[in-house]
């Protein structure tokens, strides 16, 4: 043992020592400095989104002017004029309100059914297998494919639209909610049980907050599916509660070869989507998962 230590000391004794001079920090640059006004403006998320929209609008306008065929592709300015004219006349507002009322009924019913299905799935193993099987069967099925059956069962009107919207919302929300509940850490589950939480209080105070990012993602997906399904269904048969919705507005304009009005309807669909995503869901997200520190 002594010989081994002596050999190690002899091997390391001849190793040359070296020193490293500290690097001058001035050459590195500013470690911390205040941002300029331009950097603060362009680092703002709202400004970035508006910049993207302005660029897309500019490309739209330039391409339409270059094409010079309003029947195929109207300019952005022409679309805005048509959009504003139909807003002032009340036509576009009435059609949009009709669609949103139908969507609200179908979306709310889909959320309620998704909550019932997921609660049953969380409560028992057989419920989980039933929901997994149903989502595997019906989630890939396009809601618009059920429209002929909806017309036979419920007739021409709001009930048929609500039926296909529920199908669009139900499975997406149920699947994401179930995945969220499954991903709740066992530590949180045990903590809830240790403090005596059971039943609805256990689900409401432990499972739902922990799984809410997945639940919110499912609500966003369900909203998008329901909105585009409604527009597509209205494009097929359209009339609901004595007046057509935004999809029927687009369909009528297409029959009249009024491309600017078609673009005006599409612009309305896009604006509503941006409004719901950027205002409603962003507010929910800020007051829940961001406030709880569950995501950045």
Short overview:
This protein has helices at 2-13, 37-42, 45-67, 76-89, 91-123, 125-138, 147-154, 158-182, 186-194, 199-236, 246-255, 259-287, and strands spanning 239-240, 243-244. It has 296 residues and is an all-alpha fold. Helix 5 packs across helix 11 (246-255), helix 10 runs antiparallel to helix 12 and helix 11 (246-255) packs antiparallel against helix 12 (259-287).
If you had to describe this structure to a student in words, what would you say it looks like?
- By secondary structure, the protein is mainly α.
- The protein has a single domain (72-287), classed as MetI-like (MetI-like fold, Orthogonal Bundle).
- Helices cover 75% and strands 1% of the residues.
- It contains twelve helices and two strands.
- It has a two-stranded antiparallel sheet.
- Helix 7 crosses helix 8 and helix 9 (186-194) crosses helix 10 (199-236).
- It is flat, with a radius of gyration of 29 Å.
Query: Helix/strand-derived class?
Result: mainly alpha
User: What Rg, in angstroms, do the CA atoms define?
Assistant: 29 Å
By CATH, the architecture is named Orthogonal Bundle
| Overall outline | flat
Count of individual beta strands? 2
How many discrete structural domains?
1
Strand percent estimate? under 5%
For the structure shown, list the relevant keywords.
single chain, 296 residues, mainly alpha, MetI-like fold, two-stranded antiparallel sheet
């Amino acid at each position: 043992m002594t010989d081994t230590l002596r050999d190690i000391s002899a091997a390391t004794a001849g190793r040359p020592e070296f020193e490293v001079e500290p690097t001058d920090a001035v050459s590195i640059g500013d470690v911390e400095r205040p941002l300029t006004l331009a950097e603060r403006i362009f680092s703002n998320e709202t400004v970035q989104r508006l910049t993207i929209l302005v660029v897309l609008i500019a490309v739209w306008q330039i391409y339409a002017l270059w094409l010079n065929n309003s029947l195929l592709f109207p300019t952005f300015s022409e679309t805005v004029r048509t959009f504003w004219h139909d807003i002032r006349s009340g036509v576009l507002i009435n059609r949009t309100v009709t669609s949103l009322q139908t969507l609200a009924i179908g979306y709310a019913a889909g959320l309620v059914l998704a909550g019932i299905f997921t609660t049953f799935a969380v409560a028992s193993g057989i419920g989980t297998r039933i929901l997994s099987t149903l989502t595997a069967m019906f989630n890939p099925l396009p809601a618009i494919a059920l429209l002929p059956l909806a017309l036979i069962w419920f007739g021409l009107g709001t009930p048929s639209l609500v039926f296909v919207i529920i199908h669009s919302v139900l499975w997406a929300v149920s699947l994401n909610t179930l995945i969220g509940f499954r991903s709740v850490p066992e530590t949180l589950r045990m903590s809830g049980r240790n403090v005596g939480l059971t039943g609805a209080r256990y689900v409401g105070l432990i499972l739902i907050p922990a799984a809410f990012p997945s639940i919110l993602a499912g609500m966003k997906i369900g909203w998008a599916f329901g909105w585009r399904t409604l527009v597509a269904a209205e494009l097929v048969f359209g009339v609901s509660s004595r007046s057509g919705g935004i999809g029927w507005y687009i369909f009528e304009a297409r029959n009249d070869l009024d491309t600017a009005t078609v673009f005006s309807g599409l612009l309305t669909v896009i604006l509503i989507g941006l409004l719901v995503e950027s205002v409603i869901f962003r507010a929910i997200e800020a007051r829940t998962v961001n406030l709880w520190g569950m995501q950045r």
